[in-house]
């Protein structure tokens, strides 16, 4: 999964307000990683089910330790990049969600990741 990582971590996010990450030092945009739900494979399957259920999200690439997806907005067709990095050592899934263009996203990336977190944490 080329160019989605930097030194084994998700790409840094910009100073613009249109992104969030579990691996940032920007406190207003930092979110908590997702705990593994069972094994890495169980956690990955759970996330993929959530992503596939959203018709605006397309999984573009997947490796053993990553999922890369793109969400395209309905009206303006803006694209947001969504990365998930599976951290076996800490048994968590780090994520990064960032708009490709513009400045403010009116909190869309944060709301998206809050919703994905909520669905991911639901009991099966």
Describe what you observe in this structure.
It is a single chain. The protein has helices spanning 40-53, 108-121; strands at 5-6, 9-10, 19-21, 34-35, 57-62, 66-72, 79-87, 92-99. By secondary structure, it is α+β, with helices and mostly antiparallel strands. It has a single domain, classed as 2-Layer Sandwich (TATA-Binding Protein), CATH 3.30.310. The strands form 2 sheets. Strands 3, 4, 5, 6, 7 and 8 form a 6-stranded antiparallel β-sheet that branches. It has a two-stranded antiparallel ribbon with strand order 1-2. The longest helix is centred in the middle third of the chain and has 14 residues, at 40-53. It is globular, with a radius of gyration of 14 Å. The termini are far apart. The mean pLDDT is 95.
Brief summary of the model shown:
This protein is an alpha+beta fold and 124 residues long. The protein is 23% helix and 31% strand.
In total, the number of strands is 8
Unreliable residue runs: none
Q: What's the helix-strand series?
A: EEEEHEEEEH
Summing up helix and strand content along with how strands pair, one would put the structural category as alpha+beta
**Tally of helical segments:** 2
**Do you know the CATH architecture?**
2-Layer Sandwich
Strand percentage, roughly?
25-35%
**Backbone CA Rg:** 14 Å
Q: Roughly how many Å apart are the termini?
A: 30 Å
CATH structural fold name: TATA-Binding Protein
Q: How is the main sheet built?
A: 6 strands, antiparallel
Outline type: globular
How many structural domains does the protein architecture include? 1
So what's the CATH class? Alpha Beta
The amount of helix comes to 10-25%
> Which whole number gives the mean pLDDT?
95
């Amino acid at each position: 999964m080329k160019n989605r990582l930097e030194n084994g971590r998700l790409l840094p996010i910009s100073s613009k307000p249109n992104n969030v990450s579990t691996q940032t030092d920007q406190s207003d945009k930092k979110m908590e990683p997702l705990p593994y739900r069972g094994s890495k494979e169980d956690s990955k399957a759970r996330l993929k089910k959530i992503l596939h259920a959203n018709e605006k999200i397309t999984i573009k690439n997947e490796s053993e330790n990553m999922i890369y997806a793109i969400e395209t907005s309905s009206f303006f067709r803006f694209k947001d990049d969504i990365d998930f990095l599976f951290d076996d050592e800490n048994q968590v899934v780090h994520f990064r969600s960032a708009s490709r263009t513009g400045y403010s996203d009116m909190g869309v990336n944060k709301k998206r990741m809050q919703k994905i977190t909520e669905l991911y944490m639901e009991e099966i």
